[in-house]
TrEMBL record:
Keywords assigned by UniProt, alphabetized: Endonuclease, Hydrolase, Nuclease
Listed GO MF terms: endonuclease activity
The protein, known as: Uma2 family endonuclease
Domain Putative restriction endonuclease: 17-185
InterPro entries found in the cross-reference section: Nuclease_put_TT1808 (IPR012296), Restrct_endonuc-II-like (IPR011335), Uma2 (IPR008538)
Organism of origin: Leptolyngbya boryana CZ1
Superkingdom, natural source: Bacteria
Keyword field contains Transmembrane: no
Pfam family, one: Uma2
CDD domains documented for this protein: DUF820-like
């Protein structure tokens, strides 16, 4: 099952409040938007992907609890990017100094901020080109470090601001570099 893209414009143009309400009225749907306002509806994750995603979120969350440097988000959080797109990375992290610039209302709805760090986890049904485009959109909107993890190919693509994408084949670990200082992700559970 692949994502469904619904082009609304020019017939319908949802405001931020209308999009938020639409998502609240359809909690069982995974909904994002493109920068041009098209809705992207993706199927829910299967068991294998859900397990891997939970492992990734847990690992980043445990690191964050120890360092207390920011806020960790799971795949149900939608971020309003500067280009107008509404995207939901599988795992995201925002530093406290940036998170605390948002009002309480902005924090409670779809935060109008690009995460500092994102992970996209490819499921068996995901199109790799679509995920690569999504990762590039994150980078174009200010994400500092991103990992596109493909368990089927045992491959990771690392996205860094101002650098070419680096592809690693069957890495054992990934470093959070300067964005997530001291974070080291083991990939054995993800590539099983």
């Amino acid at each position: 099952m692949t994502a469904i893209v619904i082009n609304l414009r020019p017939t319908i143009e949802l405001t931020d409040d209308e999009f938020y309400q639409f998502c609240q009225q359809n909690p069982d749907l995974r909904i994002e938007t493109t920068a041009t306002g098209a809705l992207i509806v993706t199927p829910p994750a299967g068991g294998g992907t859900g397990k891997r995603n939970a492992d990734l979120t847990t690992d980043v969350g445990l690191w964050n609890r120890q360092t207390a440097l920011g806020v960790v988000f799971d795949s149900s959080t939608i971020f309003k990017l500067p280009n107008g797109a509404n995207k939901s990375p599988d795992v995201a992290w925002v530093s406290y100094d940036r998170w605390n610039t948002l009002t309480l209302e902005q924090q409670e709805r779809f935060p109008p901020i690009s995460p500092d760090f994102v992970i996209e986890l490819r499921s068996r049904t995901d199109d790799i080109e679509d995920l690569e485009a999504k990762m590039q959109e994150y980078m174009d909107n200010g994400v500092r470090l991103g990992w596109l993890i493909d368990p089927q190919a045992e491959q990771v693509k690392i996205y860094r601001q101002g650098q070419s994408v680096e592809t690693l084949q069957s890495p054992l670990t990934l470093s959070g570099e300067t964005v997530l200082p001291g974070f080291l992700l083991g990939l054995s559970r993800i590539f099983r």
